[in-house]
Amino acid sequence: MEKIIDESKQGESLVLENKEQNTRKLYIESYGCAMNFSDSEIVASILSNQGYNTTQKLEDADLVLVNTCSIRDKAEQTVRKRLEKYNAVKRINPGMKVGVLGCMAERLKSKFLEEEKIVDLVVGPDAYKDLPNLLAEVEDGRDAINVILSKEETYGDISPVRLNSNGVTAFVSITRGCDNMCTFCVVPFTRGRERSRDPQSILEEINDLWARGFKEITLLGQNVDSYLWYGGGLKKDFDKASDIQKATAVNFANLLDMCAKAQPHMRIRFSTSNPQDLTLDVIETMAKHHNICKHIHLPVQSGSNRILKAMNRLHTREEYFQLIDNIKRLIPDCAISHDLIAGFPTETEQDHQDTLSLMDYVKYNFGYMFTYSERPGTLAERKMEDDVPEDVKKRRLAEIVQLQREHSEIRTKQYLNTVVEVLIEKESKKSNKEWSGRTSQNSVAVFPKAQYIIGDLVKVKITDCTSATLIGEAIGLSDNQ
């Protein structure tokens, strides 16, 4: 994977505020998407009530959990290497129990218990409430597994702990699962059908976060634009709903509006969008509210109509351009980021050139770029030959990455000699004398600390930049503080 974005927390061990009465120690690592990190917060909340405090020291743990990703083969290989590390520690501490959570758990199921001798339990993304029962089985000397996909579970009734939190930003999950069935993707098989969370529970979580001092939330889902609440149930069953349910249904634009009004000083982001579902009313809602951040992550995957069809992406190149045009018309300063795959089966040089020309049209602010990775069980793996040579994939990826660097530099230079709002999140990695934060457009900005503190929303005059970072000086607190 190549990326032009500095947001990765891959493999981060997570820690929350401990309870004095808890006597056991939990070590949890998360890999993959933001939803996995959000799920780890749910898991830690459940286990906190079972007597577990978290620790950052693997060797001290009574229970080790790794929350896994199956989206790329490289992600799975990384997890297997971590399991080898756990095995080495377990030889010293045989009382330690090890569990695999998340998408790899769902995809590989009992193979982990059969092949990975150090794994004591395997828990899929919809089975975390069963963890206390599974741990009881493990303590009785039995292997434990629950990877049944749910049609109802949203964890909306659980208050997540905020793991390794800066006290400023937080994730709020609004949907689970995905119905899109892209031919390259395992998510529908590992996370099940789309279902949405009660909007009232979402608003309650946001209100609680604001009361606790958080300044920004990210609404999370595999496809947030598919959010649809009509009293419960799967999105695919909406046609069977009553007339009253349909009349009072809440879609994503409605939810976004409700969240923005509930806490008008809370910055709101969302991820991830799908081009086929990002409707005009969502863009209009973003334009209407200052506190909804002006950034849309809009995965396109390819610029070729032929490849998009092979991927079962339900949008064309031309429809994507129309969507981009509408975003720029209604929100001229909106940043747009992407996901792109190089070397999908049957991809030709012309298909690749179509991708490059699409990038030239949009000039994305940043993005995630990958070579195609065949995932077992997907339609692409079952029906298509992975026929693009690895050296060709790597060369095409390098060309995509280089073009994105050029576009990122164009986008950051647009901010020179302008004033932007930055929410301070942490110290700069390069200097303890500087703060680091993000603009509404999700650009990272660094500037001297002066009298400001983490959580301040400040006005920053941009004086310099790289392709990924804005550099400037704070000139005062924002009026939107």
Q: Overview of this structure, please?
A:
The protein is an alpha/beta fold and 481 residues long. Among the domains are: 2-146, Rossmann fold; 419-477, Nucleic acid-binding proteins (OB fold (Dihydrolipoamide Acetyltransferase, E2P)), CATH 2.40.50. 34% of the residues lie in helices and 23% in strands. The protein contains 15 helices and 23 strands. Strands 2, 3, 4, 5, 6, 7 and 8 form a seven-stranded mixed beta sheet that branches. A five-stranded mixed barrel has the order 19-20-21-23-22. It is globular. The relative contact order is 0.09. Keywords: 4Fe-4S, Cytoplasm, Iron, Iron-sulfur, Metal-binding, S-adenosyl-L-methionine, Transferase, tRNA processing. One of its GO terms (molecular function) is metal ion binding.
List the helices and strands and how they pair.
Elements: E1 2-4, E2 12-13, E3 24-30, H1 34-48, E4 52-54, E5 63-68, H2 73-92, E6 97-101, H3 102-108, H4 111-115, E7 121-123, H5 131-139, E8 144-146, E9 169-173, E10 175-176, H6 187-191, E11 195-196, H7 199-211, E12 216-220, E13 228-229, H8 243-247, E14 250-251, H9 252-262, E15 267-271, H10 280-288, E16 295-297, H11 305-310, H12 317-330, E17 335-342, H13 349-362, E18 366-371, H14 379-383, H15 390-413, E19 419-427, E20 434-438, E21 444-448, E22 457-465, E23 469-477
Parallel strand pairs: 3-4, 3-5, 5-6, 6-7, 7-8, 9-12, 12-15, 16-17, 17-18, 21-23
Antiparallel strand pairs: 1-18, 2-3, 10-11, 13-14, 19-20, 19-22, 20-21, 22-23
Helix pairs in contact: 7-9, 9-10, 10-12, 13-15
Uncertain ranges: 1-10, 12-16
State Rg: 22 Å
Number of strands: 23
How would you classify the helix and strand content by structural class? alpha/beta
Might you state the CATH topology name of the domain at 2-146? Rossmann fold
Count of individual helical segments:
15
Strand content: 15-25%
> Which architecture of the domain at 2-146 does the CATH hierarchy give at level 2?
3-Layer(aba) Sandwich
Output the CATH class name of the domain at 2-146: Alpha Beta
Q: Major β-sheet, in short?
A: 7 strands, mixed
Instruction: State the shape.
Output: globular
